[in-house]
Amino acid sequence: MKILYYDCFAGISGDMNLGAMIDLGVDPAFLKEELRKLNIDGFHLEVSKDSRRGISGTKATVVIENPDNEKHRHLRHIEELINQSTLSEHVKTTSLKIFDLIAEAEAKVHRIDKQKVHFHEVGALDSIADIVGAAICLDFLKVDKVCSSPIQLGGGMVKCAHGIMPVPAPATAEIVQSIPVKTGLVQHEATTPTGAAILVAIVDEFTEQVNFPIQKIAYGIGQRDVSEVPNVLRVYLLESELGSNNTSIEQAYMVECNIDDMNPEWYDFLFQKLFESGASDVFLTPIIMKKSRPANRLSVLCNKNILSGIKEVIFNHSTSIGLIEYMLTKTVLDRQENEIETELGNVRFKSSFYKGREIHSKPEFDDLRKLANLHDISLSDAEKIINKNR
Q: Across the chain, where does the E strand assignment appear?
């Protein structure tokens, strides 16, 4: 399994991302050729080697050939531009997702409909190239998963089309509100709205843990060189050997609490609410607490993006007054579901694979029970007949 990891210790911008992707192995000639599919003139991409504080990498600059003739576009103009191009459907979808994130943020800041947002910075040619270029690069790398560290936003004030604004700029703050961030490393805008939207659109998981062997390290050089912190974006290409064994590695959270004063009949309702909220697994473990009181430990496995909702369910639907949570790593086998025809009727089979071979397979229990009832036979007999027909 190939993983792209963004180490945003000094933030991210659109041009830093392009530089990092080229440094990682994206062919600049291919990128330029793909950008021409937008069928717009007035810009070109310059690629060069550069360094910041002794760190060498690739600098990508979108050069506007006639700034005085620059057009400012609304979202619909950009959507038309991308949809009418000959770019791949995957590149189009990713590009539009990034633009939509920025439009949503600007609309919320200005309290207007997103279709009425007048793009200033992001409607300019350089931002269009940065965003569509990001989608092209991601498609070129063909990674299985994208991860990122928390994003450094910077500090101080920034000058934009609306005047002097605090860092993060209001649009950036809206875009990153649901992901982990850091602030204050530098007194300037470390992460731009374009950089933030690229990450929010493409990253599958935000984590500070790099658990796999690093195959390649690359650096995108930023335009700024005014602080002791190198203005670079570092990216890693990771390769999980486990991925070739029909497994995937996932980060998850376990939320737990000890309960000794709740009506046991309430647990079924609590479980239902937790699964409805997206929990991957919920289980109870009998324990003995202080003063030899019998109790249950409630354990809930979930992804980070629903962690707050899971905690809310537990507090609202149990007697717990405190929780613990910790991150863990799951190794999950690849699974497939196939429907087969048997003499009893159609049955869905769930199979799991490891190192290229099937190691577990069983009929879906709901189908098994339905056919056992239909033919008035035991579950055991139904399973024997179904397995015989495979």
A: 2-7, 43-52, 55-64, 145-148, 151-152, 157-160, 163-166, 181-182, 205-206, 214-221, 232-239, 247-259, 281-288, 294-302, 324-341, 346-354, 357-363
- Please report whether residue 297 resides in a domain: yes
Domain boundary among 307, 331, 355: 331
- Let me know whether 368 and 310 are in one domain: no
Q: 276: domain CATH number? A: 3.30.70.1380
Q: Can you tell me the distance from the alpha carbon of 15 to that of 195, in angstroms, rounded to the nearest whole number? A: 8
> What is the Cα–Cα distance from 297 to 323, expressed in whole angstroms?
11
Cβ(98)–Cβ(197) under 8 Å?
yes
Q: How many angstroms separate the first and last alpha carbons of the chain?
A: 31
Residues with Cβ < 8 Å from 329, sequence gap 6 or more?
209, 211, 249, 250, 251, 252
pLDDT at 120 over 60: no
- The SS3 of residue 43 is strand
Domain around 262: 247-331
**List of residues 6+ apart from 3 with CB closer than 8 A:** 143, 144, 145, 146, 147, 212, 237, 238, 239, 240
Closest CA to 150 of 200, 188, 193: 200
Same-domain check for residues 262 and 355: no
pLDDT, tens digit (0-9, with 9 covering 90-100), for 317-336 = 999 999 999 988 888 888 88
Phi, psi dihedrals of residue 315, rounded to the nearest 5°: -70, -35
Please state the pTM of the whole predicted model. Answer: 0.69
- Let me know the angle formed at the C-alpha of 233 by 228 and 236, rounded to the nearest 5 degrees: 130
Q: Is the pLDDT of residue 172 over 90?
A: yes
- Domain end call among 331, 363, 378: 331
**Structural tokens at position 198:** 């690229």
Q: Which residue type is seen at 366?
A: D
Selection from 334, 264, 328 nearest residue 300 by Cα = 328
In angstroms, the CA 287 to CA 289 distance is 6
